[in-house]
Amino acid sequence: MPETSDPAEASVHPATLAITAGRAHSGSSLAPALWASSVWQSADMRDARRRATGVRSGEFYGRYANPTVASFEEAVSVLEGAEASLAFASGMGAISTIVLALCGQGSHIVAQRQLYSATLAFLQGPCARFGIEVTFVDGTAPGAFAAAVQPGRTMLAIAETPSNPLLELVDLDELGALRGPITLVDSTFATPLGQQPLAHGVHLSLHSATKGIAGHNDATLGVVSGERDLLDEIWGYHVLHGATPSPFDALNALRGIRTLAVRTNHQAASALHLAHSLQGHPAVTAVHYPGLATHPQHHLAIRQMRHFGTVFAIELAGGAAAAERLLGRVGLLRVATSLGGPETLVCHPRTTTHASLTDEEAAEQGVSGGLLRISVGLEDTTDLLADLLRALSAAD
Ligand SMILES: *Cc1c(COP(=O)(O)O)cnc(C)c1O
After folding, report:
1. Topology match between the domains 7-258 and 261-395
2. 7-258 sits in which CATH class?
3. Pocket flag, ligand 1, residue 252 (CB < 6 Å)
4. pLDDT, tens digit (0-9, with 9 covering 90-100), for 233-264
5. Which atom of ligand 1 is nearest to the CA of 339?
6. What are the domain boundaries of the chain?
7. Is 112 in the pocket of ligand 1 (CB under 6 A)?
8. Residue nearest ligand 1's atom 8 by CA
9. pLDDT for residue 361
10. N or C end of the chain, less CB within 10 A?
11. Does the C-beta of 191 come closer than 6 Å to ligand 1?
12. With pLDDT > 70 as the criterion, what percentage of the chain qualifies?
């Protein structure tokens, strides 16, 4: 059972919930118990039938459910304010399973153009191959999703906010008011403590828990939260699709949730300080971070976010050549693509995550050769700024 039913939990703050939630399957152990089992034993034929035919049946077979994974799912439900959650082997496992669970040949999806590159590739490649049509819209434009909905045919509306890599936002109230399709928000960049899409009327809130939730670069995991009936329906396909989460990764992610509030508070404060400090630097033409007053959607960020996230992006005056010089000079910052972990990472989207785009597509998405995405870790902020300024002095 989700722990949202506990009245004591309704009155405390998210940071406290991150400590109290997801303890139902660990007995009196303070650390989560690791249930490595892929199979459970039945008492008799009747019991075996009950386990085999139950919805989200626990203690039957690993692909159906697992108690360690269930503990992680329950903790995410509490933080998202959801009835239920469902975990997957990765963020992409979650996205592909949901699309294939809810759509079929002839279905239509509205998705924003500003999407994580693998999500975009999935919607453009396999979806087209399976006869699922996707209309891409500018997620920052008011009314864009609604204008693209085809009544009776649009099954899903997919948004990502803040988006990768430019930290653009989608108005969650507007998305929640959309009528017709099931609405899905990839909320990875906000973490469950940064925003609550379900509170705005959105149906499904999704995370790559590989990132900030697990938070230590030691788990590959996805999770989606929403109403129980809808998640039960997705689960019915999930057991066939088989993007089953590892119990060990769920354990690491649940441990990550215990420190999520202190980590993201530090990282978001650091990100704001660094983003602010780099504004106006002669080698930097733009700084993208929703917490900056200069961000075109700063007021929307204040309205729908509790913190502004742990990632920001900069654009260098010297373009790709300057980016290459900077990546060669950073010391404390590490060159890597992920986000949400303890180490501060810098990546060059145009040659990594967005390498497969044509120049035209890259220009349309604003992914220039001089763009760098920075995931802020847990190091001291002044040390990070010193490293960045030293590396930047070679970038112009
Ligand atoms: C990483 C990421 C994904 C994909 O998650 P995986 O766990 O790598 O499969 C999806 N959306 C966003 C915004 C991400 O950052």
Report:
1. no
2. alpha beta
3. no
4. 999 999 999 999 999 999 999 999 999 999 99
5. 15
6. 7-258, 261-395
7. no
8. 91
9. 86
10. N
11. no
12. 97
Mutate to test the pocket of ligand 1, among 210, 244, 310, 338 (most ligand atoms within 8 A of CB): 210
Question: Domain 261-395 class?
Answer: alpha beta
Rg (CA), the chain: 21
CB 74 near ligand 1, within 6 Å: no
> In terms of residues, how long is the chain?
396
For 7-45, how does the pLDDT look when each residue is reduced to its tens digit (9 = 90+)?
555 689 999 999 999 999 999 999 999 999 999 999 999
Q: What percent of the chain has pLDDT over 90?
A: 93
Q: Could you give the residue numbers annotated as active site? A: 63, 116, 186, 211
Confirm or reject: Cβ of 210 under 6 Å from ligand 1.
Answer: yes
Measured in Å, residue 189 CA sits from the centre of ligand 1 at: 9
CA–centroid distance, 42 to ligand 1, in Å, is 37
- Is the Cβ atom of 159 under 6 angstroms away from ligand 1? no
Dist. CA 186 → ligand 1 center (Å):
9
96 within ligand 1 shell (Cβ under 6 A): no
**C-alpha span between 365 and 292 (Å, rounded):** 21
**pLDDT above 50 for 322:** yes
Provide the token pair at 119. Answer: 């999500």
Tokens 């990502």 correspond to what residue?
160
Rounded to an integer, what distance in angstroms lies between the CA atom of residue 280 and that of residue 276?
Answer: 9
Shortest-distance Cα residue to atom 2 of ligand 1: 208
